[in-house]
Design brief:
Structural class: alpha+beta
Strand content: 25-35%
Distance between the termini: 34 Å
Number of domains: 2
Helix content: 10-25%
Strand order of the largest sheet: 12-11-16-19-20-9-21
Largest sheet: 7 strands, mixed
Number of strands: 32
Length: 416
């Protein structure tokens, strides 16, 4: 993936969200769906304790990149290369979900606009809507504006335009709008001036709480997401699965934040959205091919998490459809993070947990597993043993991941 963010939802490259050491190419998609693992559970690990000595180094052998919940983007690529359709890919990564229709708009926080106002270039048919009284005003002036701006002054939204200097533009004879302001154009496009440069967006640009918010249909929003999350050069079935997953994720965020002034952000903290700059013909085709399709479970939008790479094992995401299971497609996806290693010193671990004292052993105690596949999974608990005032300390796999910047919590431990 180009330098793609695969969302941890994301990561770099096609966001890596998978890891598999075995490719079960002989299995059909239907067989995979039938052979679903049982309920997620922490299981006693078979990992033996790793004895460590002062001054020694611990080797962490890991797999995948991201949180591993839901769809692995690399896994989706591998599945598409193996001949699965987008529907089969989605059924594998989100078992038990069903497709349902959706048509809605969404409010996206533009995090890169940090100057507390909303500034756009002139555009044909530019107008401002006053969200306080619902009225819309055409923005016309005998001057030749370089830019138009919405800015809040003492709690009131005002409209300005700039020639050689700034001018206040009165809307309906008023110096301020009755509420927040929203800009739209006859072309359906607006060029937003950001501190880092100009960027084009579809729909409306709103100034709310001194933030810039892009208001547009979920379908148009999706066009700026898919190729920002997965390389547009990947197989159509993978792009279509990404389209449905991203649309579902957006629908869930919208439903959970329906009354807020924004419902989703434009970074990997949500899912990456770059406006028109993020659109590609292949990814737009994937959006069109799956138009309006979202995943539901029990009548609710699914929490359709995805990540760059699961390393060959999907981790439990705390939902009935985000299950721990082997991913037979990861190994055939060209995933650069299928396997990785990192060296950490025992001294660094001791420094992070000083009450343990001099560390003598470290053992993976439980993993994210299930009854059907008990011998693999993401690390859920680790016990540190030392000679300090608190000689044993239990931490999570995520704790170790955060402490040392690991790519995932799917790993084993050893000493040279």
């Amino acid at each position: 993936m180009m330098d793609v963010h695969f969302s941890p939802h994301q990561t770099q490259g096609p966001q890596m969200r998978t890891r598999t050491t075995r490719l079960l190419t002989a299995l059909t998609a239907a067989a995979l769906v039938v052979a679903l693992p049982g309920p997620a559970q922490a299981r006693a690990a078979s990992d033996p304790p790793v004895m460590v000595a002062p001054g020694s180094t611990l080797t962490i052998t890991g797999h995948g990149w991201g949180h591993g919940h839901g769809m692995s983007q690399y896994g989706a690529r591998g599945a598409a290369l193996a001949g699965l359709t987008s529907a089969q890919i989605l059924a594998f990564y989100y078992p038990g979900t069903a497709l349902a229709p959706l048509s809605a708009s969404i409010k996206v926080l533009i995090t890169g606009d940090t100057d507390n106002n909303t500034t756009v270039l002139p555009e044909r048919g530019l107008r401002v809507r006053d969200l306080g009284n619902g009225r819309t005003y055409k923005l016309r002036t005998p001057h030749t504006p370089k830019v138009w701006r919405l800015v809040q002054v003492n709690g009131h939204t005002k409209v300005f335009y700039k020639t050689s200097r700034w001018h206040l533009y009165k809307t309906g004879g008023r110096r301020s709008l009755a509420g927040d302001g929203e800009l739209r154009s006859a072309t359906g496009l607006l060029t937003l001036r950001l501190p880092t440069g100009d960027r084009v967006y579809r729909g409306a640009l709103r100034n709310a709480n001194r933030d810039t918010v892009n208001v547009l249909s979920i379908e148009n929003y999706l066009k700026g997401v898919i190729a920002s999350e997965m390389p547009a050069s990947w197989p159509a079935a993978a792009l279509q699965a990404q389209a449905v997953a991203a649309r579902t994720y957006a629908a869930r965020e919208r439903a959970d934040n329906l009354g807020d002034y924004y419902q989703i952000c434009d970074t990997s903290a949500c899912q990456v959205y770059r406006g028109v700059a993020g659109e590609q013909p292949q990814s737009n085709a994937a959006a069109a091919a799956t138009a309006g399709q979202v995943l539901t479970y029990g009548g609710q939008y699914a929490f359709a998490q995805f990540a760059s790479s699961n390393g060959g094992w999907s981790s439990s995401g705390g939902q009935p459809y985000l299950v721990p299971q082997p991913d037979p497609y990861a190994a055939g996806a060209g995933d650069p993070n299928l396997n990785w290693t990192k060296q950490v010193t025992v001294a660094a671990i001791q420094a992070a947990y000083p009450t343990v004292g001099q560390l003598t052993s470290i053992q993976i105690m439980t993993r994210d597993g299930n009854a059907t596949y008990p011998n693999d999974g993401w690390v859920t608990s680790i016990v540190l043993t030392g000679n300090g005032s608190t000689p044993t300390k239990t931490i999570s796999g995520s704790d170790l991941k955060s402490l040392f910047g690991l790519k995932s919590a799917y790993f084993t431990l050893s000493t040279p």
